[in-house]
Amino acid sequence: MIKYTTALRQGTAKTEATLRRFTRQNVQHPMYRALAELGKAIKTIFLCRYLYSEALRREINEGLNVVEQWNGATDFVFFARRGEMVSNRREDHEISMLALHLIQNAWSTSTR
Prior knowledge:
The chain is mainly alpha-helical. Helices cover 76% and strands 0% of the residues. The protein contains five helices and no strands.
């Protein structure tokens, strides 16, 4: 378990590839189940800290507000397409995302 978590943390292995290795043919590997249980324990610890700490709740709420503001800017830019990229061409996607980043950067510097 330590070998896999170290590889994930150091970036020498991708999460999807590691998990795919343990879930072939609808049979769950014991390591996969152990990692899932560890994940549940970590999630429980986080939830306990979240419920206990008002400062943590405020910090998370402020971060969520920032994300919602970014999403609002995205919706504004892509309003005619309901936020969807309708083209199948990679170049069109790149141009749309570059334009979106440019507008978001201009918006973020104007709000400072």
